[in-house]
Structure formats: C-alpha cells, structure tokens
Amino acid sequence: MSENWIKVAAIGDVEADDVIAVDANGQEIALYNVDGTYYASSNICTHQYARLSEGFVIDGVIECPLHQGRFDIASGKPKGAPVHVPLCMFPVKVENGSIHVLIAPAQASSCVKAGQ
Ligand code: FES
C-alpha cells in the first residue's frame, strides 16, 4: 500500500488543548494538540453531521458541539451515548516544524460518514 504523508499545518497553528480543521487532499481532518502531542481524526462526528473542530477539547477528550458526544482523542473511541462508532484516526508526525498526517487511500474510504 502506498503511503501518503500530507503536510497539514505548522507547529503553533494549533494551541495546546485545542483543535483546528485542516484539509488533507480533500479529507476533512480535525487536528488536536493534547499537552503538546498531536492527533488527527476525521473531522465529522460519527453520530450526525457536525464538525468536531468546532467542539471542545477537555482532558484529552473531544466534545462534539451538536449533541455533546465525547470521544477519546488518542484512540478515537466513543465515551458513551449518543456516540457509539469510533472516529477514523490518522497517524501524525512532526518534521521540521510542520505537522504531517498519513492518509492511506483504503483508510480514507473506510472512514465512517455522518449518520451511518
Ligand atoms: S453529531 Fe456529534 S454527538 Fe450528535
């Protein structure tokens, strides 16, 4: 499988305990900074259509802005109702002050879309 690391942001674009929306070749990504460690997930909640980048990061958990569903940022696992389906997560690396996300074509297409 071919690997496809995509530069999505610079260090400093996303502050500690915050989340921003970035685009990786058309894939909407939520990019998190949890105590200086970066994580990337699909930006769309697995419950209904809401952008997680408009939610809140609290103690390593992202809270969806629409129905307050919560996911563990490191694993993408749901923390309880109303969310039951994990987030699609993407590997992240930091190189030369830039943040890169690995988008594998098979993984991107298998990401759960809103409402499924
Ligand atoms: S859309 Fe995210 S919890 Fe409902």
Distance between the termini: 26 Å
Strand order of the largest sheet: 2-3-4-8
The global form is globular
**Count of alpha and pi helical runs:** 1
Low-confidence stretches: none
SSE pattern: EEEEEEEEEEH
| Strand runs, count | 10
State which percent range the strand residues make up. 35-45%
What oligomeric assembly is this protein in? Answer: single chain
Computed CA radius of gyration, to the nearest angstrom: 13 Å
Sheet having the most strands: 4 strands, antiparallel
| Average pLDDT reading | 91
Helix/strand/pairing class, anyone? mainly beta
Helix content: under 10%
Structure in words:
The chain has one helix at residues 105-110, and strands at residues 5-10, 18-24, 27-34, 37-42, 56-58, 61-63, 70-72, 89-90, 92-95, 98-102. The strands form three sheets. It has a four-stranded antiparallel beta sheet with strand order 2-3-4-8, with no helix packed on it. Strands 1-10-9 form a three-stranded antiparallel beta sheet, with no helix packed on it. Helices cover 5% and strands 41% of the residues. The radius of gyration is 13 Å and the shape is globular. Bound molecules: FE2/S2 (inorganic) cluster. FE2/S2 (inorganic) cluster binds next to loops. FE2/S2 (inorganic) cluster binds at residues 45, 47-48, 50, 64, 66-67, 69, 82-83.
